[in-house]
TrEMBL record:
Its EC number is 5.1.3.6. PANTHER family: EPIMERASE-RELATED. The lineage of its organism: Eukaryota, Viridiplantae, Streptophyta, Embryophyta, Tracheophyta. It comes from the Eukaryota. This is UDP-glucuronate 4-epimerase. Residues 58-87 are annotated as: Disordered. Residues 58-69 have a biased composition (Low complexity). It is found in: Golgi apparatus, Golgi stack membrane. It is a multi-pass membrane protein.
Length: 460
């Protein structure tokens, strides 16, 4: 869920209705086949609509932002200017990066969105324990790509090769699967952010729907088929008011296009599991934060603006209701990702044909302790030793929701997932990293930290 806005109305409705829950389950099982079919059809039609509408970008931009001509349908990437993939040297780097050093239980993982926030931390953890890892990222300009490049340098120090390319590049994916018998795919690449969908909706369909299908297609055709763990989102809970959010709750009332594409992804995952025997685990992340984070997240740009002496905007719900989020520290999220990889069963297909039932799972990964955004700001003030200039405004209809709250009972039981970092501690580590990275006293951050400075858990 986009951390750009806080979320928790103070008093939450408790989930007490056992009979209501049973009715939901009966509805779910009786309507699921039709719902899956029509959801998949809708997603496909939506995608084709964007492909077939050459004037969509300009017309939607004109209607949403009549004064701006800078909106574009596709984000810029580095792939058009970088050398084509392939060749002997390129293949050697892929194979070296994929080599498993942890025997006999090591795994070989293709990580998409590798230069992203969660991707970088997950790769470092996998590499440290001796697993083989190959990264894939298109380095688009949704936010400052120099931060992604810095993460790439960090990963190269650990011996990880990041392939520059797009998840929608079928030939590239086939080449990677031909070179390496990946046991797992950790699919983290996506168009993130709730509000940006109002400016560039096509990018969400391209990355979150078509991109996911592209990964599933490459995986179902691979021999052997890898198990897949992929990033869904807590945004799928949308307008749900039952708290804490549980995996058994309905998710058919999305509040944003971002949420709708993630929901469509979960239904598409069911299809590929059912038809092709892919082992698939979806992870619903709850507002991830920490060192090396995304600049479009609230805690990140609040920090930047507080230090610059600029006002920060804090949203409020109806009647000045508190906005809260279930902020989850990056190390805890990574722990959940690795546990999902380690407990993922093998896919059951080969040659594109299913040979038996395959594992299909969805887990919430949160901290299960919602915090009002105003409290997040107070914590940042203490760590930065600077008073924020607060500006309270009514929350606009931009896809954000008032609160999020994760029920992590299932993840605890099945994954051994136990978040350990509270917001006070996590923000202290983030602020320490931020000040070192953006205002180094002498030399660059990477030069000072050397090869061992990538783990957020090393920050105090």
């Amino acid at each position: 869920m986009d951390a750009g806005v806080p979320s928790s109305p103070g008093k939450f409705k408790s989930d007490k209705s056992h009979h209501h829950h049973l009715r939901l389950l009966r509805w779910h099982h009786s309507s699921l086949p039709k719902f899956l079919f029509w959801t998949f059809c809708a997603a496909a039609v939506f995608f084709l609509f964007f492909l077939a509408s050459p004037h969509f970008s300009s017309s939607s931009s004109a209607s949403l932002h009549s004064s701006s001509s800078t909106e574009r349908r596709s984000l810029r990437t580095s792939s058009s200017s970088s050398p084509a993939w392939g060749g002997t040297e390129w293949e050697k780097r892929v194979l070296s990066s994929a080599r498993i050093r942890r025997r006999p239980f090591g795994i070989s993982v293709l990580v998409t969105g590798a230069a992203g926030f969660v991707g970088t931390h997950a790769i470092n953890s996998l590499k440290r324990r001796g697993d083989g890892v190959v990264g894939l990222d298109n380095f688009n300009d949704y936010y400052d790509s120099s931060l992604k490049r810095a993460r790439q340098v960090l990963l190269s120090h650990s011996g990880v090769f990041l392939v520059e390319g797009d998840i929608n590049d079928g030939p590239l994916l086939r080449k990677l699967f031909d070179l390496v018998s990946f046991t797992h795919v950790l699919h983290l690449a996506a168009q993130a952010g709730v509000r940006y969908a109002m400016k560039n909706p096509g990018s969400y369909v391209h990355s979150n729907v078509a991109g996911l299908v592209s990964i599933f297609e490459a995986s179902r055709s691979a021999n052997p088929q890898p198990a897949i763990v992929w990033a869904s989102s807590s945004s799928v809970y949308g307008l749900n008011t039952r708290v804490p959010f549980s995996e058994s709750h309905r998710t058919d009332n999305p509040a944003s296009l971002y949420a709708a594409t993630k929901k469509a992804g979960e239904e598409i995952a069911h299809v590929y599991n059912h038809i092709y025997g892919l082992s698939i685990t979806g992870l619903r992340f709850f507002t991830v934060y920490g060192p090396w984070g995304r600049p479009d997240m609230a805690y990140f740009f609040f920090t930047k603006d507080i230090l610059a002496g600029k006002p920060i905007t804090i949203f409020q719900g109806p009647d000045s209701a508190t906005v809260s989020r279930d902020f989850t520290y990056i190390d805890d999220i990574v722990q959940g990702c690795l546990a999902s990889l380690d407990t993922a069963q093998k896919s059951t297909g080969s040659g594109g044909t299913k040979h038996g039932p395959a594992q299909l799972r969805v887990f919430n990964l949160g901290n299960t302790s919602p915090v009002p955004v105003v409290e997040l700001v107070s914590i940042l003030e203490r760590h930065l030793k600077v008073k924020a200039k607060r500006k309270f405004v009514k929350m606009p209809r931009n896809g954000d929701v008032l609160f999020t709250h994760a029920n992590i009972t299932l993840a605890k039981k099945e994954l051994g997932y136990h978040p350990k970092t509270n917001l006070q501690t996590g923000l202290k580590r983030f602020v320490k990293w931020y000040l070192e990275y953006y205002t180094p006293s002498n030399g660059s951050y990477l030069a000072k930290k050397g090869r061992g400075g990538s783990s957020s858990s090393n920050s105090s």
